[in-house]
Amino acid sequence: MTHHPSAEARSDRLRLTVYLSVTFGFTWLCWLPLLANRQWAAGLPVLPGQFYLGSFGPLTGAASAELLTGGIRGAKDWLKRLFSPAFPRRWLWIAVLLPLAYGAVSVLVHRMVTGSFPELGRFGLTSDLPAGFNLWQTSLTWMLTFGIGEESGWRGFLLPKLRKRRSLFGSALIVAAVWMLWHLPAFGFNDNYLEMGFGIIGWAISLTYGSVVLAWITEGSRWSIIPVILWHGIFDTLTASDQAAEVMAMVCSMLVIIQGVLLMRSMGRSARTRE
Predict the structure, then answer these.
(1) Which of 61, 68, 96, 145 could form a disulfide with 19 if both were Cys (CB 3.0 to 4.6 A apart)?
(2) Nearest to 213, CA basis, from 162, 176, 251, 165
(3) Phi (first) and psi of residue 11, to 5 degrees
(4) In a 3-state reduction of DSSP, which class is residue 188?
């Protein structure tokens, strides 16, 4: 007897295919010229802020998949759920206070390791953004680009689709694998990635457990991505800043790994309780 996949399964497969194709296609189209210019002095024309433009790949992929399969109404329903404020407010506090706590610990460790605190006037700032940006402008930029651009896709589309048939932890691991692969071109042109060396192993582990943390927040927020946009923006402000390269980024990543391990254990206990 031949088993035929249900209409829902076929629709989900189509959505995921469109999502992944557009997500990677859009981002890599933005980033590959930057890679070619850095590695081979190709001299290709690039737009100001083209690296940040690439962050909208997951958003573009998710919107394309929703429009193709659900039309305008489906896309509107998706956006309504994505930015719904109807979630318990404790998740807003969790999403904001967690990365701030990572930052506070990392500042103290920076002081212990280097003998001085980070320069207050340069705190959180990066040379990747125009000179003159202050801390608040930098944070807002991260939230409006990699925050909304990534979370609309990873946690706003891919995670809930995977969650239909898998555990939250298993879904988070699959998202992490796709998320890592999506970053691939950046390792050829972005200084933060180029300077990692063997630190790429720690980055991969941190991203994996970060995916677990963000999955936990997203499901708790009833699949609204407002809290994870804030988490993502604050975390990027701390770890992608010029001063973070010495100590702070590593400490923040270690704290995310620790939290992810603890959450993984609690997720495992919850799964056994339901069995």
Answers:
(1) 61
(2) 176
(3) -65, -45
(4) helix
Looking at residue 121, what is its pLDDT? 83
Q: Return the closest-CA partner of residue 102 out of 271, 248, 264.
A: 248
Place of tokens 């909304």: 148
Cα 256 from Cα 254, distance rounded (Å): 5
Q: Which two tokens stand for residue 143?
A: 């939230």
Q: What is the pLDDT of residue 274?
A: 43
d(CA 113, CA 106): 10
Would you state the torsion angle of the CA atoms of residues 63, 205, 244, 194, taken in this order, to the nearest 10 degrees? Answer: -80
Q: Residue 271: what pLDDT?
A: 53
The candidate with the shortest Cα–Cα distance to 175, out of 249, 260, 259, 239, is 260
DSSP label of 126 = -
Per-10-residue mean pLDDT, the chain, length 275: 67 92 98 97 95 98 95 96 97 97 96 91 87 91 97 98 93 97 96 87 95 97 98 95 89 96 78 43
The packing angle between helices 226-239 and 248-274, to 10°, is 150
Q: Please list the helix, strand and coil fractions of the chain in percent, rounded to the nearest 5, in that order.
A: 75, 0, 25
- Please state the separation of Cα 137 from the chain's center in Å: 19
**What tokens were used for 163?**
């969650």
Contacts of 266 (CB under 8 A, 6+ apart): none
Q: Which amino acid is at 39?
A: Q
Written as one letter, the residue type at 248 is: M
